[in-house]
Write a structure and sequence with these properties.
The protein is mainly beta. It is built from four helices and 41 strands. It has a 35-stranded antiparallel beta sheet that branches.
Amino acid sequence: MNDRRAIVAFGLAALAVLLLGARPSVAQGASSDQGMEYGDYSIHGSLEFGYRYNDVTGNQNTFNTFVNLQTGVRLFDSTLEMRSLNHQGTFFDDLYSFNFGWGGDPNDVSRLHIDKNKWYDFHMLYRRDKNFWDYNLWANPLNPAALSPVGSFTTGCIVSPPSAANPGLPGYCSSPSIAQTTSPHSFNLARIMQDYDVTLLPQSAVRFHVGYSNYTNKGPGFFTTDSGTEPQFPAGYRYSMNTYRFGADVRLLPRTTISYDQFFNSFYQNNAVLETPTATPEKYGYQVPNGTPVDLGITWTTLTPASTSPCAAPITNAATTPPTVNPICNGFVSYSQANHGTDFMPTERLRFQSNYFPKFQTTGSIAYSTANTSYPSFSETMIGWTTRTSSPGETTAGPAKAKRDTVDADWAGVYSVTDKLRVEDFFHYYNWRIPGVWDSDLGNLFTTGGAGLGAPIGLFVPANCNVGNAYSGPTCPNHTATSAADLVNGFNQNFLKQDIKSNTLELAYDFSKRLSGYIGWLYTDRSIVTSSLSYTTENIYYPGGVGASAANFYLAARGNCAVVAGGGLPAGCVPNPNGNGSIINTVAPPTTGPVVSPYNIGENSLLLGVVFNPWDSLRITGNFQFGYNNAAFTRIDPRNVQSYKIHVSYKPKPWANLEGAVEINDNRDNVFQVANIEHDNSYSFTTILIPNPHLSISFGYNYWNVYTQADICFNYSITYTNPAPPPTTLPVSTSPPGVATTACPIAGASVGGAGLGTLSYYLSKDNFVHADVTWKPARRVTAAIGYGGSFVRGNTTYLNPLTPSGMLDFDYQMPYAAVTIDVYKGFSYKTAWNYYGFNQEANTNPFGLAAIPSQDFNGNTFTFSFQYAF
C-alpha cells in the first residue's frame, strides 16, 4: 500500500506529460543527457532500479539495528524535472519529482513539487522509516553465570580471577543460569511522515498558504517493568499526530513581509499490552504445581533469598514440561495495560521581516500555543507476586490530564553603522508552564484461598461472598488483619514552569577585505519552578477472609480502620452506605499546599569571532565563547562554559582543497559534592583532489573525545554463599570490585545508611577515517572505491562488574567498491559492493556473566542496477 506513494508521485508527472498532447523530440544538436523538449517543456529525468543481494554472517539482529538493508528488487532512484520554456504551461510551469528506496529499504522518500507562475506553488514530501532495534546490551539484566561446582573456586562464577593471595569468592551466581539473548527493549516500528503544502498567488502582495502533515509511528515492541522480578512484556505501539495549518503573507510596504499562521496539532496514543500465559504458554517455560503458566521475569540471580531473584530455589521439578517452580517466587500470571492518550494543541504565530529602512534589517515572531493532554481511560492490571509479601494482584487506573501554555518570541536586528561596522542584536523569549493532575485509583487483589502464583483471585461480590458464611467462604477474598486496602483513591498534582529571556548583542567590524571580526555578549535569565502534591483521599476495605466476624467487621476493619479499644471504628471510618459490608476511610487533605521549588539561573557569555583571509586560497574562521552561570539546575548543568571552534580552508591549486577543523567544548560544575567536568572535543581534516576530469581523490580523519564525571552515591552490598555443604556464608562486599569508594559525600542523597560514594566517569574516544577514489579509465567506464571506519575505545565506572563494555569498545568498518558502465546514450549499468563489519572489542562477555550471544556481524551487500537518464 505504501509503495503506491512513489508510483503516484512519478505517475502524476507522467500523466502531466500525456495531457500536453505533443510528441517528445530531442533538441537538435543536443545529446540525450541534456534532456528533451516536449511541447513547451524542457524535460530531464532519470530512473535507476535493480536488485540487492545480502550475505550476512554473525548477529542478524545487530545488523538489522545498524544497517537493515535487505535482499530484493529496489527502486534506487528516480527523478523527473519539467520546466516551461516560456512560463506559459497549460497546467503547470515547473514540475520536479524525486524518489528513492522503494521496494523494501529502511528509508523511503518521495518528493513532488509543482508550480504555476503567479497562481500556485505545491510541495509534497512522503517518508517512511523502518526503525528496528535489537542491540542486546541495551538494558540487559546482566544475569550471572551458574554456580561453581561443589568445592571448586577455580571455575564458574567468582568475583575476580583466583590467585594465590585471593582464591576468589563465589558470587553473582545463579542456579539455574538464564542468559538474555535479545534486547529486553527491542522493537520494530514503522514511522510514516507526510507533508502537503500549497501557496496560492505566490507572487502577489497578499499570498495564502495551506498545509497538512501526518506523523504515525507504530509497530510491535517489548518493555520491562521493575516489580520484584523484571518481566518482559510485548506491546503494540501506535503514536499519531495530525497538523493542519493555514496562513497569509502580506507585502504592502516595500521590502517588508508580515505573516500570520495558524496551526492545529492533534496527537493520539494507543498503546496496548496483554500478557496472557494461556495465549502463549511456550514463552514462559514455567508452571506452578497446579499447572498455571507463569512468567518469572528475565532477571535471574538465586544467590540469596533476599536478593533480587524470584526466590533462592525457583525450580522444584525440572522433569515436568514445562518445569515446575515454587509458587511463592516473584512472577507474573497475567498483565494488561491500556494507554489511550490524546492531545490537542492550537498555535497562533505572527511574523515579520523587513529592510524597509536603509541600513537596517529586522525580523521577528511571536507565537502562542496551548496543549490539552488527556488520558481518560488509563488502566493497568497485574496478577502475580512482586514482593512475596504483598497482595497477589494490583490494578492502577484513573483519569489524568495536563495542560501546557507556551509563549515563544524572537527578534533580530542588524544595523549597518558604516560599510564596515555593524551592530547585531538577537532576543529570544520562551515561557511555558505545565500543570497536571491525576485522580488515581489503585487496587489490591486477593486470592480466595492458597497463596502464591496460580492461586485463584477473588472479586468481592456481596451476593456470592456472604451466603450463610459471614464473609469467610471460599468465594470471598482472603484478607488478613494486616492486608492493605482493597481500593486507594488519591490526588496527584504536579507543576513545572520555565521562563527564559535571552539576548545576544554583537559588534562586527570589517578591518579590511581580508580580516573581519566580532565581539558580543550573551545574557540569559532562566527561571524554573517545580511543585508537587500527592495525598490519599479515600481508602476502601472489603470484608472477607478466615477469621472474619462481626467484631472485626468481617475483616473490613483493618489498616487505618482497625477496631479501636472498646470496639467500634476510628474517626474517619464509616460503613459503606450501600450496605455491601465495606468500610470507607475518608482522608482529610493536607493542611499545607504543594511544595514549591523555584530556581533562578543567570547565564553570561563573552563571544568572539574572526574571519581571516591572508590570501585568496586560505580562509581561517574562529568562534569562541567564555561563559559563567551563577547556578545549575541539575548536577550536569554547567556553571562554566568554554567553546573554541576553528575552521581552516586551503586551496593551494584549483584542483586541490584542504579542510581542517578543531572544536573544543568544555563545561564545568566543579563545586563541592558535584565535581562535574565535561568536555566534547573533535579534530578533523579532509582533503579533496581532482587533478583531471578522470580522477578524484578524497580522504580524511576525525578524532572525537567525550568525557564526563560527577560525584555519585549508591547502595552496594552483596552476600556471597558457598554451595559446598555444610553451607558457609562468606564475607560481605561493601563496594564494587575495582571501584574506589568513600562514605556518601552528598548531603541529602536518597540512599540508605550504608550509602557509598565515588567519582563516576565516562570516557569515549572515536577515531574515524575515510577515503574515496573515483577513476574513469575509459570513456564509458567509471570506477569507485572507498573506505570508512570508526574505531571507538572508552571506559566508565562499572558498579556491576558483570557489565559488558558494549558500545564503548568496537570497530565498525565500511569499505565499498562500484563500477558504472555507460552502455548507450543515457543508459548505464551499475554494480556495487558494500561491506559492513561490526566487531566488539575488550570486555564483551565479562567473567561470571551468563554467556550472551556475540553482537558482531559481517555483512556483504551487492547491488545490480540499470539507470536511464535523459
